[in-house]
Amino acid sequence: MKSAPRPRLVVVGNGMAGMRAVEELLQLAPELYDITVFGEEPHGNYNRILLSPLLAGEKSVADIMLNPREWYARNGITLHAGDPVVAIDRARRTVRSQGGSEAGYDRLLIATGSRPFIPPVPGCDLPGVIAFRDIQHVEAMLEAARRHRHAVVIGGGLLGLEAANGLLRQGMEVTVVHLHHSLMERQLDAPASALLQQALESTGLRFVLGAQTAELIGTERVTAVRFKDGATLPADLVVMAAGVRPNIELARAAGLYCERAIVVDDTLQTYDPRIYAVGECVQHRRSTFGLVAPIWDQARVCAAHLAGAGHRRYVQQATATKLKVTGVDLYSAGCIYGGPGTEDIVLRDPRRGVYKRLVLQGERIVGAVLYGDVADGPWYFDLIQRQTPVAAMRQRLLFGRALCEAA
Ligand SMILES: Cc1cc2nc3c(=O)[nH]c(=O)nc-3n(C[C@H](O)[C@H](O)[C@H](O)COP(=O)(O)OP(=O)(O)OC[C@H]3O[C@@H](n4cnc5c(N)ncnc54)[C@H](O)[C@@H]3O)c2cc1C
User: Fold this and answer.
1) Pocket of ligand 1 (CB under 6 A)
2) What angle (nearest 5°) sits at the alpha carbon of residue 121, between those of residues 115 and 124?
């Protein structure tokens, strides 16, 4: 006897969020769906976080693969790699790809991530100007590093600093240009940011802070960056690391409700009950996302609902950040700027290059910035997430877990 056809799940986006949701789903209900995945990139699924060590020459493309093509075949998943979806027809419940494939769905999962934001300055489309989001960008940067000398990275956040470090490791002369006066200002306070800048300068990186790019100069290829004040910097490669924007054009064109991103409820369902969305393309209770920890939680909840075991709800948690630059130890978690009703406790040891600041609200830690000695970062993060009362160990808190627990 022929078995009944399985319901069809189509996934748009073969990145970290979409494939994590599929992995979770396969654990819960391996046989439930007939799964088809469309990915714009011509690869299996890889760990985007590790593009930084790939650029720095510390890892190879093979090292960063999470699920090679065989994984899809082994799990009975049809993969259309290098063939983006260009239209969703919600009435007919089908998607259409650029290559002309059409796939019908019973459930659709949108996981299209973000696109790099390229500041629209004159010259931003010149050859030699690239973003830092995928394997192709890294390959273009490595090629530029072999042929050229001067790199300028626009953006002094996590991504920009990791790009700059990678290009420096590839032998380029690198200057980071940042609009703000301190690096990673969203994760670090001014003292930690100053220590970071010193450490990076000692590796050979240069910085131009508080600078606004007015124009990229060049004809055949970029040759220089000009700032608002008229100063210029030579540049044969310009890496734009000035933020990302949720990739929602496809969802919006299909009439799904979007604000800054695709709006989802606590089950990761969009306004169309057949369509779910996860990752950097979603907006949940006014927030959008740029780190993998919350995205793993979303994937788990979404998979449970797709599997029909849907009692879970997605709850936003504090996040923590590290910089993947060898030799630089920093850790930032929670709300580091404090506000009314918060107090800071601070430890500085300039000789050891150590700085620690905890932000307390009443009896609880709400934020932590650590530089130079980050061993206790995950412990502070755990205290933040669990909202553990810390009054009894307040005097010893900055000296770390071992001392607090011994006492
Ligand atoms: C260099 C770098 C370093 C990072 N380091 C860290 C870190 O240290 N810690 C951390 O937590 N996070 C880090 N991140 C962020 C993290 O990688 C992202 O938060 C995560 O990848 C988001 O997952 P996503 O699936 O939403 O998006 P993505 O991983 O970008 O996946 C989206 C996929 O959808 C595809 N797509 C888009 N449109 C279509 C379409 N129409 N049809 C088919 N496919 C489509 C895209 O090509 C892409 O492959 C880093 C990011 C970068 C770029």
Assistant:
1) 12-18, 38-41, 48-49, 51-52, 84-85, 111-113, 132-133, 159, 162, 247, 250, 279-280, 290-293, 295, 324
2) 60
